[in-house]
Amino acid sequence: MAPLLHDEAIVHMNLRLSAVATAIATVLALSAHPVNAQPAPSVAEEGNAGTVIGQVKEATRGVYLDGARVTLNGTQVVTQRDGSFRITGVASGRYRLSVDYLGYQPQEVEIEVGGSRGVRVDVTLRSTAIATDAIDLERVDVRAMRDAQAMALNQQRSSVNYVNVVSADLLGQFPDNNIAESTQRIPGVSIERDQGEGRYVTVRGAPKEYTTVSIDGVQLANPDSTTRGVELDTIPSDVISALEVTKAITPDMDGDAIAGNINIRTQSALDRDGMTLRASAGAGRYQLGSGDNERYNATVGNRFGADRNIGVLVSASHSRQGRFTDNVETLYQQFDDGRIMPTEVQIKDYEGTRTRTGVTGRFDFRIDPGNLVYFIASDSTFKDHEYRDNLIITMDQHTAASTQTVGNVRATFDKELRERTYDKNIRTYNLGGEHYVGDDWTFEWQASQSKAEKETSPRMQYIFRSNVRPRMDYDYSNHDFPIWTILGRPDAPATGVDLPESWFAFRRLNDRYEYGEEKETGLRFDADRKLDSIGDEGSIKFGLRARLRDKFFDDERYRNGSVADFNALGITMSDMLCDSISNNFGYFLAGRRFCRDIFRNYAGPLQDSANHQRLIPDSISGDYRAEEDIHAAYVRLDGTWDKLTMITGVRYERTKTHGEAAQYNEDTGEITPLAAGRDYGHVLPSLHFRYESGPDSILRASYSTALNRPDFMHTAPYRTIGELETSPVAEGNPEAKAAYAHNLDLSYEYYIRPLGLLSAAAFYKRINDPLFVATHSEDIGGGLSRQVTRPENGDRGRIYGFELAWQQTFDSLPAPFDGLGIYGNYTYADSRADLPFGEGSTELPGTSRTNYNLALTYDKYGITARLAYNYRSKFIQSFDVESPELNVYWGDRASLDLSASYALTDNWRLFAEANNLSNTKQVRFQGQRSRVLEMESFGRSWLAGVRYEF
């Protein structure tokens, strides 16, 4: 069988490489030699009288500049993403129009506004890193990292409320696999990981559910059935234009963002002149297990039409990662006499393959300078196929002298293999438009749909249990690497758990299928009118919003525990084991691993047997359906008084929920449908100030309000039961309230010429009715208990802290040191909230006291390099209300990553990336570091390849 599998793998690899090669060939076939000439500003009569319009772009690649400041006769506007600007109500006369953009040489243009026609001004800016006489050279030394940093800083500078912007080009300099990992480089943003890879995002120490995620303003549906926190590991990092993190929301934004909103902005062909062509291919290895590490992407876009006003762009990305993880877990429990002792150990080997595929397409039609219609579609798929070998040690009958550190127990051993594949998909469609009507009105509209699916199939598990239950000593003096000694068995190892295979007999075959789906349909309409009565310049903006979301989850479970059925196969557990050895961390020796084909070879007869039965309680009680309809209206006022700008307004959101689940009576077999719902409203005021104390100094202050609604599954009266009798139980709580937050933000930014930023920000959030997922013990008889988890409200909570950031290019240093730069930020956050049931207070889940990034960069002579260090301190994950000593924490973690590239030509570049150079482990613990709940290692990884860009 192995040669056939090998041939299939080669075929699949060849197909994948052929597809990438075709994409790259297409890029090359369509490319042409770039033109480095940089034209002088273009001035022409166009449009309505008294109106000045135009665009601003950079000289090297023809990319339009978002966030450039355009000043005319005391009026200042900011360019949009396509570099466009618009100034109305200009009297006839001669003027000087000035354009300022950090990192680029400013320009002034003489214009004359007549009485019958308007004026169009197109300006091209040159980077300050390019000498004046360099524009006549055949080749211009382009600094990719520097240009990317400039674009992000200018967009951030122009915002009234507090926003962090990171461009895709800048993110591309970090060795990140997905969007979640890209966000960790932003001040105040940290991530939660799964097997070492970023998955969930937290902002400013708040729970992950406090942050919303959108693509071009469309909130993403979520494939996860258990939380509102979006699994951002689904989305590749190669298909975006920029990340915008809004930490102080305005009235025109959705209100369910206590910590903030992360908006993923897609690329547009109208973002630059001419054709957009990019492609890259890379391959490498993961140190642990020598798994493959592959990544490919390609982007093709162009402008069409007589006026080049139609843009079409398609971007695609594919990656494949063979990930291996060493994992050891110990579960601690508090007994009636107050002692806390270990009760279960799991030694797990993870071996899997993760693939991501992302495709984004965008169509833009600039009908005329005042009207734009666009359609955006994106599709991101994440597939994780995984084998998990597991040796489980259940410890009971602790002796009286046993403690947390040392003791004697009766031990039961289970040996299992689980094969699990899940497919996650997030798909969005977005149709919208922007329209200027006359000199005073602007209208925007959007119709969207986002759909997420997650299917787990197969999820099968063989379990074998030891037929002996010996006494065993344990010693956790070294809590990371404990010692277990089995007593009274001459056939047992002297120490450790490399157990005789003859001890084990068939226990059961578990078979499980899960499917979850979430779909949101969104409608939005905004109207903006200029008002001369508010300051020097003012406007009123108002709009309506509807978000209609449906979610359901189905869990089907089957089991065959017939020893006779297994014996009929004519094999023992030893026949299902191969030569590979489980030896996690080079210490936890747990014997031979299972062969990977045992489900294909031996599961069929067990599934076809009459003893393969549906677990009705488990398959029914965990299913749920939830609906949430949100209708909102807002009004927003903007005003400018010289250097002071204000945004104020109020938003009203009405929420209607409905949830359905079922209960199963095991005694009667009766299924009882249950339903619950709520209807409630919230008023969300906000006030933002921006004061420009100098040309490059900005002070911002904000007050805003926001919500955190309960997770969708918690609005339904469901109850899920684990695979084992003592497995944890989760249940809904339809009566849980939405948390409501009052947010205060204060920030100061100083923009360093030619390119850099020093900033400081402080924040405070007061939260009413904070939501907790709280755990308590439930007695199930026979001296056994299980943990029950459900959402509950505390009374109040708060989060406060500050952020510091510094990024700068050192252009003034003598060569070759003028290519150096630094990128660093530090965040301190502290939280406290009242626990449910009057059980005291604790930190909110996700709050790390300290989080910081430090990156040293170099960008010159065709070399682009970045050495990046990221640190996050410990944070609480979940709560045990009855035994706070056993609250679960993620330990602190640091990582060191390196990326570098070298420009072979103007278009071709070699690149290399290395992750987790410090080989950092990840640790979870219960209450204190000496009670290690989980320790896992995933090793280093590296990738090298070639990139083409035109």
From TrEMBL:
Secretion signal span: 1-37
InterPro entries according to UniProt: Beta-barrel_TonB (IPR000531), Beta-barrel_TonB_sf (IPR036942), CarboxyPept-like_regulatory (IPR008969), Plug_dom (IPR012910), Plug_dom_sf (IPR037066), TonB-dep_rcpt-like (IPR039426), TonB_rcpt_bac (IPR010104)
Organism of provenance: Pseudoxanthomonas suwonensis
NCBIfam families named among the record's database cross-references: TonB-Xanth-Caul
Locations listed in the record: Cell outer membrane
GO cellular component, one term: cell outer membrane
Name of protein: TonB-dependent receptor
Keyword Transport attached: yes
TonB-dependent receptor plug domain boundaries: 157-260
Keyword Transport: yes
Domain TonB-dependent receptor-like beta-barrel as annotated: residue spans: 501-917
Domain of life: Bacteria
Main location: membrane
Keywords, ordered alphabetically: Cell outer membrane, Membrane, Signal, TonB box, Transmembrane, Transmembrane beta strand, Transport
Similarity section: Belongs to the TonB-dependent receptor family.
Topology with respect to the bilayer: Multi-pass membrane protein
